[in-house]
Amino acid sequence: MPAHVEIELCGERLWLLADRALYWPARKALLVADVHIGKAASYRALHQPVPRGTTAATLERLDSLLGAYPCEQMIVLGDFIHARSGRAPATLALLTAWRERHAGVHFRLIRGNHDRHAGDPPAQLGIEVLDEPWVMDPFALQHEPQVHPSRPVLAGHVHPVCVLRGRARQRLRLPCFVIDEQVSLLPAFGEFTGGWEVKPDAPARLYLAGDGQVWPLAP
């Protein structure tokens, strides 16, 4: 089973996974944010030289996670498909085959800003699409990291990363989870995504993900 760190947030046990996802054992739910399927295809449509195979690699990672954990549902906290130009036939064929492999898993998508531009996923994928916030006690699940009036938030959108700096000018940039009593952030799951640097700021807790491990960043 992939490495994880178990935390408690608002009375719930949550597992922060090394592969930039969150598993909620009590709900048998896998949560990811900012998958950005078809982003590379969107850039190639603009004649930008970007690598191929990122969608297949992203879906293979999801295959591994859904196979490693007992999942009855999967929830994407926004930005599943990157853009309309990314809905190429080859990309949709990969998505259809992936969805068929996990037909027994209930799939929910909380609409993000890219989803609103790309349009909802094709109906044949069997994805329930919801507007934010969507309440799943005790949390409000959102794309935008905005405070909810009555519930702690799990969100994405900003692609949080942390930069570690060494004495000899070493620099290591790693995706991270930001855990806070009001708004917690998941790192971007997609293969071809950037990141927004966050810094330790009490009372938030930062957990770095890299090299098959998750570990807390000391304040």
From TrEMBL:
<dbReference type="InterPro" id="IPR029052">
    <property type="entry name" value="Metallo-depent_PP-like"/>
</dbReference>
<feature type="domain" description="Calcineurin-like phosphoesterase">
    <location>
        <begin position="29"/>
        <end position="137"/>
    </location>
</feature>
<protein>
    <recommendedName>
        <fullName>Calcineurin-like phosphoesterase domain-containing protein</fullName>
    </recommendedName>
</protein>
<dbReference type="GO" id="GO:0016787">
    <property type="term" value="F:hydrolase activity"/>
</dbReference>
<dbReference type="Pfam" id="PF00149">
    <property type="entry name" value="Metallophos"/>
</dbReference>
<dbReference type="InterPro" id="IPR024173">
    <property type="entry name" value="Pesterase_MJ0037-like"/>
</dbReference>
<dbReference type="InterPro" id="IPR004843">
    <property type="entry name" value="Calcineurin-like_PHP"/>
</dbReference>
<dbReference type="InterPro" id="IPR026336">
    <property type="entry name" value="PdeM-like"/>
</dbReference>
